[in-house]
Write a structure and sequence with these properties.
The complex is a heterodimer of chains A (79) and B (222). Chain A has 79 residues and is α+β, with helices and mostly antiparallel strands. Chain A is 35% helix and 27% strand. Chain A contains two helices and three strands. A three-stranded antiparallel β-sheet of chain A has the order 2-1-3, with helices on one face. Chain A is elongated and about 45 Å long. The relative contact order of chain A is 0.35. Chain B is an alpha/beta fold and 222 residues long. Chain B has a single domain, classed as Rossmann fold (3-Layer(aba) Sandwich), CATH 3.40.50.880. Chain B has a nine-stranded mixed β-sheet with strand order 2-1-3-4-11-10-9-6-7, sandwiched between helices. In chain B, β3, α2 and β4 form a beta-alpha-beta unit. The chains are: A alpha+beta (79), B alpha/beta (222).
């Protein structure tokens, strides 16, 4: 089963990379870009075939390694 | 005093750290990350700077899950001393032994220069040879040194006197100008600047030497 994990900096945590991307978009002439947040996507291919169990395992992976929950939030989805 | 310096793939300050510890009188063993135990009778575990595992995922994230890190956590839980410098500080926050996290510098640039620091707490094994409010100069060399903790945790760190060093002129956006923090029992210190790069007069700066001599004196006395 294929799982997609989105990891983003939590709201309120300063995202200097997102701010730099926003600035660069402005330089290219894209107007009205009010905010940019940069995160990462992690794709997992799990042998597990039960959807709920796969989500539970991926969530555990997020808590233990894939996200640093001090500063990051995550979203687990089956794709 | 017996010290262990952990070595991960991508560590690059491990030998400098060993030199600084040996100059101060420590008996130093280098310990590879795949080892699952520390040498017997180790007093201090030192986690060096560098780019462990290429900074993949997050700085220090993979190193914090290495086999040797379990022993490091056990050592700290038994009341042992630990010192994490730069990437070592990132590893200590990733293990949860120290609070907070280190994110990309606010100015996005890799910073490599000497910075002035203020000693905020002299009641630790690492800083007892300094005087409160002393200004010291340590080199920094990092891309992800922007220390972040939630507001309530920052208040707690301040209340418990756990901020060891602050930057005089904040280079990276760290909350509260924080450069280094200690654990609740003050036996674990993590800091972004490099005291081990400031221990030899040949290099033009010896401000870091006092940290290593302080540490060894207090461990020997304990």
């Amino acid at each position: 089963m294929k799982i997609r994990v989105d990891v983003m900096l939590k709201t309120g945590v300063l995202d200097p990379q997102g701010a730099a991307v926003r600035h660069a978009l402005g330089t290219l002439g894209f107007e009205g870009v009010e905010k940019v947040r940069q995160g990462k996507v992690i794709e997992l291919e799990l042998a597990e075939t039960d959807k709920e169990k796969a989500i539970k395992t991926a969530t555990e992976m997020c808590e233990k390694l894939l996200a640093n929950t001090v500063i990051e939030s995550y979203l687990v989805q089956v794709v | 005093m017996k010290a262990a310096v952990l070595v991960f793939p991508g560590s690059n300050c491990d030998r400098d750290l060993a030199v600084a510890l040996r100059r101060a009188g420590a008996d130093v063993t280098m310990v590879w990350h795949k080892d699952d135990h520390l040498p017997d009778g180790v007093d201090l575990v030192a986690v060096p700077g560098g780019f462990s595992f290429g900074d993949y995922l997050r700085c220090g994230a993979i190193a914090a899950r290495s086999p040797i890190t379990k022993s490091l956590i056990g050592h700290v839980e038994r009341g042992g001393y630990a010192l994490g410098i730069c990437n070592g500080f990132q590893v200590l926050t990733e293990t949860g032994l120290l609070p907070g996290a280190l994110i990309r510098n606010a100015g996005l640039k890799f910073l490599c220069k000497d910075v002035a620091l203020k000693v905020e707490n002299t009641d630790t094994a690492f800083t007892q040879t300094y005087t409160l409010g002393d200004e010291v100069c340590y080199p920094i060399a990092h891309h992800d040194g922007n220390y972040q903790v939630p507001d309530e945790k920052l208040a707690e760190l301040r209340g418990e006197g756990r901020i060891a060093f602050t930057y005089k002129d904040n280079p990276n956006g760290s909350v509260g100008d924080i450069a280094g923090v200690v654990s609740r029992n003050a036996r674990v210190l993590g800091l972004m600047p490099h005291p081990e790069r400031a221990v030899d007069p040949v290099l033009g700066n010896t401000d870091g030497a006092a940290m290593f001599s302080a540490l060894i004196a207090s461990v020997v006395a304990a």
